[in-house]
Amino acid sequence: MMETPLLAAARRQTDPLVRFVHVCAFFFAGLSRLGSHRKPVNPVLGETYETVFGDGTRVYCEGSRHHPPETSMLLLGDGWRLSGQAVYTASFKGNTVNVTQPGKWLLVLYDNTGVETNRIHFTLPDTIINGIIWGKRAAVYTGTFLVYDETSHLEGTIHFTDSRKKGRRVDECDMSIVQVTDTEKRAKWHSKKRDKKDHPKYGSEISTAQGSYVKEFVWQNQVIWRYSHSIQANSPVPLERALPSDSRRRADVRLIGDGDFPAAQKAKETIEEAQRRDRRLRAGESK
């Protein structure tokens, strides 16, 4: 599910700050998809996925790296284009897995004539998954979620780290919006101190927002997004004529869907061995 109506609302705004807030709400609303836990399946280099959402948004994905897993994505909507790389690195500590997402993302907005109006960069927060070995499985965000509009020089930072310390639910967050006045100082600062909460003097805070990624996003006492009002119908529709490399054609995935787990495990091992062989061949060619 994608809250693409928020991007349509953003494109209608003439005030740069209001437009930026709606874009931030779009990203914020996507965090509610955290609660999907499924059997992990190692991606195959060159594996693809293509689909279309109910509102016409087209999605193209391809596995562009095996280790660490990386998926390159392109989403095309009505007057906007989103692209980037989903990259995951994980570290284990006892009953917990810490997941970082260092991939870079870019959202481009266009006016009704097709002229580019805004280029917005964003990074994704880290995730802590508890209950890996025992106990109840739970995943929460931590660190910061950074959104930067290089056209309007607006920066929004959503903070997750201190939620528990404040005695609030872990899904509740605060966002600060800064008007950047020194782009060079900003770039230098973020290259070294990206996760610091205090802002250096490369701009001034002009607004704030609050919310819960499982409830709502509020700015200036206005509810910009509410989970209960999500468009449930805006879900991906499988394409009948997908590429041969489409992930839904994988033998292990189909067998998991059929409930034949022993056969799925064998198919998974066959795919992974082919992947390892391909990696050895590529390594040999590079010498």
Automatic annotation (TrEMBL):
Please provide, alphabetically and separated by semicolons, the GO molecular function terms listed in this UniProt record: sterol binding
Which stretches does UniProt call biased (Basic and acidic residues)? 266-287
Region of interest: Disordered = 185-205, 258-287
Q: Name one Pfam family in it.
A: Oxysterol_BP
Basic residues bias (residue ranges): 187-196
Q: Gene3D superfamilies recorded for this chain?
A: 2.40.160.120
Check the record and name the InterPro entries matching this protein. OSBP_sf (IPR037239), Oxysterol-bd (IPR000648)
GO CC list: cytosol; membrane
Q: Could you tell me which PANTHER family the record lists for this protein?
A: OXYSTEROL-BINDING PROTEIN 9 (PTHR10972:SF148), OXYSTEROL-BINDING PROTEIN-RELATED (PTHR10972)
Q: What is this protein called?
A: Oxysterol-binding protein
Give the organism the record lists: Kipferlia bialata
Classification of source organism:
Eukaryota, Metamonada, Carpediemonas-like organisms, Kipferlia
